[in-house]
Write a structure and sequence with these properties.
Layout: H1 4-10, H2 12-31, H3 34-48, E1 53-59, E2 61-62, E3 67-68, H4 70-80, E4 90-94, E5 101-105, E6 110-115, E7 118-128, E8 141-150, H5 154-176, E9 180-185, E10 189-194, H6 208-222, H7 225-231, E11 236-242, H8 249-260, E12 263-266, H9 275-283, E13 289-293, H10 310-319, H11 336-344, E14 354-360, H12 368-371, E15 378-381, H13 387-398, H14 406-415, H15 420-426, H16 436-490
Parallel strand pairs: 9-12, 11-14, 11-15, 12-13, 13-14
Antiparallel strand pairs: 1-8, 2-3, 4-5, 6-7, 7-8, 9-10
Helix pairs in contact: 1-2, 2-3, 4-5, 14-16
The chain binds adenosine-5'-triphosphate (ATP) and magnesium ion.
InterPro entries: AAA+_ATPase, AAA_N_dom, At3g28540-like_C, ATPase_AAA_core, ATPase_AAA_CS, Mitochondrial_chaperone_BCS1, P-loop_NTPase
Domain AAA+ ATPase: 235-386
Catalytic activity: ATP + H2O = ADP + phosphate + H(+)
């Protein structure tokens, strides 16, 4: 143990006694054969039961299924945030986005953590699992982290310090973890890939004040733990994103997940076999996640009357059956009430810090029950590109802050409708030379002017058609009133 010598001399009587104990353990674990080791450790444990030190051990794996112990990961992360410069043996793991190596102390190393004036010693140990013939496989290695401290700190450690370590460690794990994009496949399981979407609020083209409002809402939500507990609400929030195709709804979801550092669960409702499978999927989602249902208006005819699939409803009414009043799960499909339960039923409160996002191109088609405030707390319209939005795209795509053609472009955005997706496509550099910006902006001006001219023509045509219809109606009214007069006269 490289730091043992230092501990013998450097941390006073407590450190020395802890160090001595750990030194004995390490010697036993390193130099005695497996069978003999367990006898000796048993014996040493009995003797140490009379000392004044307390040991708490956290194993790397728990349970029958060898699940990695979350507490172990959190403590490891906490210890990795402490200085590792004195260690000779370190382990390295890839951190978030596989870019940076995170260093932690390796087995047989130890460190003293100071907390509220107490010196607390963490020791990393590694033992080889018994009944295994091969020692080369990593699965044979049993790692653990042991906390050793004087018994006078027992209450402080168990009631305060360990919570502090877990909280800090979990925060580091969250910061460092690779975020995931999940989707549900058939048979009701989530599968995932690493979430690596570049969208951020900085590169979303939309009205700046609306953007600011969304960011503030998200920040308040992220800090809302106490608030939600106080008002007795589950810590979750629903967003409805609506607007024409290509206005940035899916991009906004990625930007939200990146901003909040959340995973995304992209729920494909048509693949869900009924309400109970929906509930199961919900229970498998993690905290700090965005659960997304895209194009909710196209999912399972949710615009229909609550609960009853239309064909079933018609059949039943023909047969004279009584209409079902409770949740129906006909044909193994998710019903609207199943979905409402998913959003705000009792089961939905099982997780924490979850955003539920629906997207639609046709908000007006949705059942009002689905999007009422409280379920979909915030309705966000993503609309056609405005001049402010265009400036963000010009900065992103062409690195332009200003240009003499902006003056021509500004009024055109007020006079016609174009989606940010179309603008973005036109701003993609074509020739990779200095004239790119000029070429792209001129293309955009031409496209906007054409749209404006087309829109004017269409408006004129519509007006002509309208007046023709009115004329036709007037003539019809006239001839029918003439007919009536003739009839009156003949009577
Ligand atoms: N507001 C925006 N800001 C920046 N880029 C945008 C915006 N809207 C669209 N884009 C660009 O257009 C592409 C398509 O946008 P996106 O898929 O987010 O649209 P959508 O609203 O989800 O469309 P749909 O209704 O068809 O699903 C994106 O990859 C992005 O590059
Ligand atoms: Mg989309």
């Amino acid at each position: 143990m490289s730091r043992m010598a230092e501990m013998w001399t450097g941390v006073g009587p407590l450190g020395s006694s802890i160090a001595s104990i750990m030194f004995i353990y390490t010697l036993i674990e390193r130099y005695f054969p497996n069978r003999l080791r367990s006898y000796i450790l048993n014996y040493v444990n009995r003797i140490l039961a009379f000392t004044t030190n307390i040991r708490i051990t956290v194993h790397e794996y728990t349970g029958d299924h060898l699940q990695r112990n979350v507490a172990y990961s959190a403590i490891e992360a906490y210890l990795s945030s402490k200085s590792t410069k004195d260690f000779k043996r370190l382990t390295a793991q890839l951190g978030r986005n596989s870019k940076k190596l995170v260093l932690t102390m390796d087995a047989d190393e130890s460190m003293i953590d100071e907390f509220r004036g107490a010196k607390l010693c963490w020791v990393a140990t590694k033992t080889l699992r018994e009944n295994k013939s091969s020692y080369s496989s990593s699965a044979d290695v049993k790692r653990a982290l042991t906390l050793v401290f004087h018994q006078r700190y027992r209450d402080m450690v168990t009631e305060v310090y360990l919570n502090h370590v877990m909280e800090k460690g979990m925060a580091i794990l969250t910061r460092n973890r690779q975020r995931k994009l999940y989707t549900n496949c058939r048979y009701g399981y989530w599968s995932h890939v690493v979430l690596d979407h570049p969208a951020t609020f900085d590169n979303i083209a939309m009205d700046p004040s609306k953007k600011k409002e969304i960011i503030e809402d998200l920040v308040a939500f992220g800090k809302g733990k106490q608030y939600y507990a106080k008002v007795g609400k589950a810590w979750k929030r629903g967003y409805l994103l609506y607007g024409p195709p290509g206005t940035g709804k899916s991009t906004m979801i990625a930007a939200i997940a990146n901003f909040m550092n959340y995973d995304i669960y992209d729920l494909e409702l048509t693949a869900v076999q009924g309400n109970s499978e929906l509930r199961k999927l919900l229970l498998e989602t993690s905290n700090k996640s965005v659960i997304v249902i895209e194009d909710i208006d196209c999912s399972l005819g949710l615009t229909r009357k609550r609960d009853i699939p239309k064909d079933k409803e018609e059949k039943d009414s023909k047969k004279g059956d009584k209409q079902p009043t409770t949740d129906q799960n006909v044909d193994n499909r998710v019903t609207l009430s199943g979905l409402l339960n998913f959003i705000d039923g009792l089961w939905s409160t099982c997780g924490r810090e979850r955003l539920i996002v629906f997207t639609t191109n046709y908000k007006e088609k949705l059942d009002p029950a689905l999007i009422r405030r409280g379920r979909m707390d915030k309705h966000i319209e993503l609309s056609y590109c405005c001049f402010e939005g265009f400036k963000i795209l010009a900065k992103n795509y062409l690195n332009l802050d200003s240009h003499h053609l902006f003056e021509t472009l500004c009024p055109l955005f007020n006079e016609t409708q174009i989606t940010p997706a179309d603008v973005a496509e036109m701003l993609m550099p074509k020739a990779n030379d200095e004239d790119d910006a000029e070429i792209c902006l001129k293309d955009l001006i031409r496209a906007l002017e054409k749209r404006k001219a087309d829109a004017r023509l269409k408006a004129e045509e519509d007006a002509r058609e309208k007046s023709l219809t009115k004329e036709g109606e007037a003539k019809q009214n006239e001839s029918s009133s003439n007919g009536a007069n003739e009839e009156d006269k003949s009577n």
